[in-house]
């Protein structure tokens, strides 16, 4: 009781302590997950403008894309496709709302008619779209299947967006038409031309110049729009690959050797060994990882390093063990013969209820046999009726449309019973009946090729794979390496165990693959996690080994640093500085003197125009050609920096194309070109412009 009294006296104090503890717990979790915005990030895939992309709806769309692709795209690829679909829809929807763009019911129906054209559920007897049938379908769906009705509502909404999109892009189309003045300008850009002499002094005609870090930074600051980047990561990794050890290799070799000796091995009763067994098919089934092949192989088809050695065997002689395709093998020459390698044949396939060709057939097996016997008798008496009967009775419709002909078929391409009949049993120009799992075949054998050497070979295969001991040792090695690199140099540790360190630069948060390692999405996700820092190391199980990866650099979204932009900016600035040196050394306007002073030659360019600003020996030089068009005939330019050097030019001729009576055709062609570029709803730069006008938060990488 005394204790309870003490507790009651301190009730307020205890409440305060508990409240503070709970508050601390909440704050800890909050900071761990990135602040108050984390709830929004985990509940939505992203935010476009002021509109969230819901996680559940997005996941359903991703799953739908994966199913429709039938495994051709990965989950991440489907997520990327779903994101682009949502991005486009949402951006256009917001643009329509800001413009006050509306469409009527008739326009939505027209959009549906285009989408549903040819669907018999919504077509009249003439095959045209029927709005009455559409309304009836919707009414019935609303009553019978609320879930499918909701899907239909979503479809209607997408059709409304399509209708608005068509209206919107038609409005844009009206604004991109080229004027007659633009047509005139384009005509002259394509047809006016110049002839001029020039001297080009390549940049390397002066000494190498230095480009400092501050030079690069100043250039970046002056061209910020060119050097924006997404968040990126640089990694390096080593790969502990699952591979069999020498011990594993020796163990499999010893195991397969035993199959050719009299030493007692675990095998089915009566199988003896590979040399003496009288049941090769069963022996291979028990001991081999590949099945027994009872077909003949033509000698000209025998390939590989050991093919000739096997062909040189006597019948019942064994060759091996030999190593091929990561497996140890022993092969026995079972039989030699001569066979045709192709036959020309036709058939009529008669199926019955239960065969796997035509589910609509209801005749019994007995009825099918009776029909097939009757057809065999008819064609035996009158071969001219074979094509007619094939067209009427054969369930193999592909050959039936060609009179039952299968044309030339290679040995082994047919089901066993059919194959044995046409290659071994039947005579050329004869008819016969064969039963297979597909039904009864009335067969006509028209021709065979000449006989060729063939062999039957039995092979026992045992693949060399890493043992459990080897896999455990691999795991221990990768774990030991991971621990060692926490305190020591990553590369030195790799060198000490003779592993190659592979660098990977510029990984994006939505990348799925690591160069040299294939799909490794888990590594990419880890590299972009908020808690992952430069220098962090982690091991990953790839399913075929272990990758130990280290983050070497974290580049945040935004303006590139001088180091990151150096590869692009340094050549630009180097050319600028070299150009200034060259310009300072050019004296006078005599082209021959300029050429002589730099050890180059004077050249001539003819019929140069603005649309194709190509200078012989210099490539595309739009700045130089543009400057030339601003000159008067016989003028000599000041030194001009081009793409490949510094130019001094003298204009010799300026030829203006004759005026056209009208520039309407040129303007029309330009309009069509602009329309093709701008008005494709999926690739239009309009969508890119809308993206740039909105705040977009993309959380795909947190979920996929």
UniProtKB/TrEMBL annotation:
Cell location: Cell inner membrane
Record-annotated PpiC domain positions: 340-447
Q: Transmembrane stretches, by residue range? A: 12-31
Show the GO cellular component annotation of the record: plasma membrane
- One Pfam match: Rotamase_3
Per its record, what are the GO molecular function terms?
A: peptidyl-prolyl cis-trans isomerase activity
The membrane topology of this protein is: Single-pass type II membrane protein
Keywords noted in UniProt: Cell inner membrane, Cell membrane, Chaperone, Isomerase, Membrane, Rotamase, Transmembrane, Transmembrane helix
Family in the record: Belongs to the PpiD chaperone family.
Q: Which PANTHER family match?
A: PEPTIDYL-PROLYL CIS-TRANS ISOMERASE D, PERIPLASMIC CHAPERONE PPID
Give the protein's recorded name.
Answer: Periplasmic chaperone PpiD
The organism encoding this protein is Psychroflexus gondwanensis ACAM 44
